[in-house]
Amino acid sequence: MLKLAAIAALVCITSAGLNPFGLMGGLVHNALTGANQAVHQSLDIAGKHADIQTHLAYGIIGKVLGENNIIHKVLGGANQAAHSVKNSRDFTGKVVLVTLSNSGLAEGTIKLFSILGANLVITGTNATHLAEIAQLAQQQSPTHNNKPLRVVADLTKTADIERLVGEIVYKFGRLDAMITFANSYPLLNITDTNLIDVWDQTLRADLRATAELFHLTYPLLEKARGSATVVATIAGVAPVAVELAYSTAKPGIQHMVKNLALELGAKGVRVNTINVGAITPDGTNLGNPVCALIKKKAPLGHLGVPLDVAKGAVFLSSSDAKYITGANLVIDGGIIYNYPSYFK
Ligand SMILES: *[C@@H]1O[C@H](CO)[C@@H](O)[C@H](O)[C@H]1NC(C)=O
Ligand SMILES: *[C@@H]1O[C@H](CO)[C@@H](O)[C@H](O)[C@H]1NC(C)=O
Fold it and tell me: Which UniProt keywords apply (predicted)?
């Protein structure tokens, strides 16, 4: 596409002798079109050729017009913007931690960061599952041999978080982005006899673990001027009757993120939340009646897949989101607006 833009620009130059404004207008138009196309291509993970073609177009126009004219500078500016957007999704050399990676939801995010070149650290309680995900991530990495660092850890335990952070420092000495997934959502209501046990366990896994993880990772995030994205669910936005503790913990997480955004903003660390709706591994309802209902009620008319969440996490961790902190990105197909009637 960019090659075509360059050819169009040359045609414009050869036929524009009688109309200098046509030349200017045409070139500027083509430059902007070229920039737009570059942005489009940046969204295509496989669009490696965009770089070469952009340089080709830039080189040809530069040669025709000389290096220091205004059009050259305009094109340079547009190309720089396009490049920075494109490079925004290049995580080569960046260290990205994804926690509680036992969930299928986290798996999509791990794979996408691997595709984008990140050095991953993944952690969860199930060693077998971590090994499986690490293998998949490695296969997807650009070199096919960038294997995630695996740390088997239970983040409700201080010693485990300390060990996790220690291993990150030992192996990489830096941390650019952290994405946390928590997936403890037991059914609970106020009449349950085991209320307090489940309450403590859930708030420990969701709130305490997240607070302590930030406590131990913020120096690294600060050093890298990095970001953290806390993945929660729309239970953080609207209550779920049968999940008392979970539905209390999630808004707690949201508010923690906003506090952290205030506190860490001055240190250049961005902190955001993603709230997900119904996500299944393949977007089908898996025979689950609640998922079937959500699918029917979601404005977009379908369920989400882990990649939908992964793209949000990648965006919030990218330089494209450098002015976004304390935000709540809801990835739910719009179900939040029909949500309270879920169980009716
Ligand atoms: C751990 O992961 C393996 C592989 O995915 C799975 O077969 C096993 O059921 C998991 N164990 C637990 C306790 O969840
Ligand atoms: C409370 O939850 C239990 C399941 O944990 C359920 O059997 C019971 O019907 C619920 N009670 C109310 C009042 O919702």
Answer: Signal
Pocket residues for ligand 1 (CB within 6 Å)? 126, 128-129, 132
Q: Which ligand has the nearest atom to the CA of 193?
A: 2
**Which part of the chain has CATH 3.40.50.720?**
95-341
Cα 183 to middle of ligand 1, angstroms: 15
Q: How many helices (H) and strands (E) does the chain have?
A: 12, 7
pTM of the model as a whole: 0.78
Tokens 């220091």 sit on residue: 68
Does residue 19 register a pLDDT over 60?
no
Could you say which of 1.10.150.120, 3.40.50.720, 3.40.50.12780, 3.40.630.30 is the CATH number of the domain covering 95-341? Answer: 3.40.50.720
What does the pLDDT look like over 211-245, one tens digit per residue? 999 999 999 999 999 999 999 988 878 887 788 99
In tens, the pLDDT along 193-206 reads 999 999 999 999 98
Write out pLDDT tens, residues 295-319.
998 999 999 999 999 999 999 999 9
342 band by pLDDT with thresholds 50, 70 and 90: low
HSE value, Cβ hemisphere, 13 Å, CA-based, for 151? 24
- Torsion angle in degrees (nearest 10) through CA of 150, 203, 185, 96: -30
Q: Which residues line ligand 2 (CB under 6 A)?
A: 187, 189, 191-192
Q: How far is the CA of 126 from the centre of ligand 1 (A)?
A: 6
